[in-house]
Every structure is written in structure tokens, then in C-alpha cells.
Amino acid sequence: MLVFFIHGVATRDACYSSNLQQLIKTEFSHRGEKNPHFYAGFWGSALTDIGKIWNSIDEDLAHVKKKYSKIDSEEIFRYRTFREGLFSQFLGDFFTYMNRDKGREIRKTIAQQLYNFIKQNPNDFELHIVAHSLGTVILWDVLFSERFSAKDPALSIRAMIREFENQTDVKPKHQVNLSSITLMGSPILFVNMMLDVRPEKVNQFADSYSSEQPLRWLNLIHPSDLIAYPLKASLPLAENTYLKFEDEYLLEDANLAEKTVRSLGLTPLTPLAMALGSSDAHSSYWNCCKTAGLITNNILNQRKVISQNLLDIVIPHLEQVKGMTPISKFMGIGLNDDHSKNIWKGDLYLKFPDKSGKIYLYINPLKVHHVYVLDSDDELQFGGYVGWIDQEGLMQKLELIRGLMINR
Asked: 228, 187 in Cβ contact below 8 A?
């Protein structure tokens, strides 16, 4: 079993996938499965140095500052942090890839690395690809674009995958079956307006797929990731196609700063939450246990939920409820502890289908709503309350959580 990674923007370190690899290995170990072979494809050295571009911008701004000496630099060139961060990194790397020569160089690097990976493991014929950010666009382009010449490295990559063997004249000695694809933080939905890959092309690939099991294609989306978008509705695949596509959302905050701002529930602060969370959200997939669990599900064709996964999803949702006051001092008190029964009470509201926890709800005579989340050992993991003004928001959130449970 071979797992090949394709990185995205602003990646200059070949060890970018190390944490995610370790998390996937842990998942495989917990499930009693033999670890796959990993290869972190690396083409970041071919990318343009965004730092040099910003040095030029700073020179231009210095001249403007001399002209308008009484105006603050932040007024001349607003939102510098956002511009210099994810926004310029993505645009810079994307346009570098779309450059004819640079793009070909990147595809050539990926083709050679994939070939070496397959050649080094001649007895493994099952290939799984995990791509992030711009890497998802490159993968999409390589698999489906019709813009390449006969000698482009993209065709060499296709030739290594058995399903393409009748669509290219390249005949490599080593071929594999593409069994799963996982996308993380993918902008394909909008970038495809330029690449113009038609749904028919994807359907053609699906029709040619002859493996015993359908190709599993998973698209992971962090809700704060401004680069990531769903794809399923834009891929009108036939019912009996051999390509099974799913969008999956990682419902959590990107960092503590975003979590704090969002918990205030004030609409004017939304841009601040966006600025604080978008960059971290886009890179968070590489260090996320949930991501590792979902990738493992996709590789092994399992629907197993990671231990504590639903519990981890529920608590951040409740923390975001407007007016929620956490009762943090109760953390660690068990349901069966004698003293805990005198501290809180409530009716069972919901049991999690993965058995990782449950929710209790208590409404006191003053209409103050208390909510408690217990884990599988009946240990209190979250407690909080809202006043009558915010009770509707809490109940809406609980119904959302119930819906999430049904869809798992």
C-alpha cells in the first residue's frame, strides 16, 4: 500500500507531512492494520520566492511614504498581514505553476518522484494520493486537463496509473491501481474556471476505472479555510460510476484567537475572526487527528469514527454558543462521584452514535439552560449555561449537533 503526498503553497520543507504521517500510522496501529509506505513528494524548490516580491513592494512603499510623510504607513497600504500571508502565497505559487516552463518543471519533479516510489516498492500495487491546497489543483490538472503536449510529464504520471493505460502512448514498466484520493484545503472549484476541465472528462475517467472497488475521493474542508470549497455538486457523476466522491467538513476553530473572537458572537468582529483563523486553518490539516482518521478511513475503505471524534466535535460547537458561560471548575468530576450528583443534574438529551459521549440538559426554574457533556467513562468534559436571552441559540446549536450525529 503506497501513500503519496503532494503539498501546496508556501512549502519549502520536504518534511512537511511528517506529523500527518505519524498520526496516520497511529490510526493504522489502533485498527490492527499494517502501516503503508509513505512518500512526501516535494516540488517547493521550483516556486517563486515571494520574499523577494515583498522586498520590492517595501521599496515602493518607502517612496510613497516620503511623498506622504504625515500619513501612517498602514493607511497607505492596508491589511498588510493578510496580503503578505496566505493571499499572496497562494496567488504567487499558483501563477508560478501556471507558467508554462515552471509548471512543466513541477510536473516533471512529481512524475520522477512517483516513479521512484513505485519502483522502490515493486510488490505494492495500491496507490493512495493525499494532496493539499495547490497540490490538489496540480493533481486535478495532471489527471484531467487536455492542455498538455504529448511529451508533458503529466502523461507520464497518467501512464503509471492503470486506468489511463489506454489513453497515453507512454508505457512505463511499473504501474499501480489508484485506490483513493484525499484532498485537503482545495480551491479546485474556482481554479477550474481557468483549467476548464469538464465534468465529462471526470466521468470518462470514472467509466474507465476497472478496479473491483470504486475509486474513493474525499474532499476535506476546514470551515475557516478561505481556500477550501466543496466540489460534489459540481461533479454530476452517474449513479453507478466507479468514482465515489464525498465532501467532509472539519468543524472546529483554527486557533484559540479565532475561537475567542467567534465566542463573542458579534457580527462586526467576523472579519477579525477571519483574519485570525484563515491561515492557520489552511495549514491545520497536517497536524490534525481528525484529518488522519478520515484519510485512514478513505485508504482502508472504512467508516470507523476516530475515538472521541464526535466528543471533540461537539464541545467546540457548544463553546461557540452566544452567552455560554463554561463551568470549567467542574472538569474531571465523574457522574458516579457522590459529590458530583449534588453539583449538577439534568435529563439525557443525546447519546453519540460512536459511544464516545453523551449530552445532558437541565433547565432551572429561572429558565437558565445548563448543558453537560460526558465522555464514555461518564467523566464531565464540558459544562456551561446560558440565560433565557440566549436559550434559543443554545437549542438551535443542540439541534445542529443532533443533525451531525444522524449524518455520521
From this structure: yes
Percent of the chain at pLDDT > 70 equals 80
- Give the pLDDT band (50/70/90) at residue 330: very low
Give the mean pLDDT of 16-33. Answer: 92
Residue 342 has pLDDT above 90, yes or no: no
Three-state SS string across the chain, please? CEEEEECCCCCCCCCCCHHHHHHHHHHHHHCCCCCCEEEEECCHHHCCCHHHHHHHHHHHHHHHHHHCCCCCHHHHCCCHHHHHHHHHHHHHHHHHHHCHHHHHHHHHHHHHHHHHHHHHCCCCCEEEEEEECHHHHHHHHHHHCCCCCCCCHHHHHHHCEHHHCCCCCCCCCCCEEEEEEEEECCCHHHHHHHHCCCHHHHHHHHHHCCCCCCEEEEEEECCCCCCCCCCHHHCCCCCCCCEEEEEEECCCCCCHHHHHHHHCCCHHHHHHHHHHHHHHHHHHHHHCHHHHHHHHHHHHCCCCCCCCHHHHHHHHHHHCCCCCEECHHHCCCECCCCHHHHCCCCEEEEECCCCCEEEEEEECCCCCEEEEEEECCCEEEEEEEECHHHHHHHHHHHHHHHHHHHHC
Residue 241's nearest CA partner among 211, 214, 218 is 214
How far is residue 404's CA from residue 408's CA, in Å, rounded to a whole number? Answer: 6
Better-scored residue on pLDDT, 163 or 367: 367
Q: Under a CB-based contact definition with an 8 Å cutoff, are residues 75 and 65 in contact? A: no
Position 253 pLDDT exceeds 80? no
pLDDT digits (tens, 9 = 90+) for 124-164: 999 999 999 999 999 999 999 999 998 999 999 999 987 77
Confidence band of 122 (pLDDT split at 50, 70, 90) = very high
| CA dist list (Å): 330 to 202, 344, 380, 381, 382 | 53, 9, 7, 8, 8
Residues 6+ apart with CB under 8 A from 31: 296, 300, 302, 304
Question: What pLDDT score does 297 carry?
Answer: 94
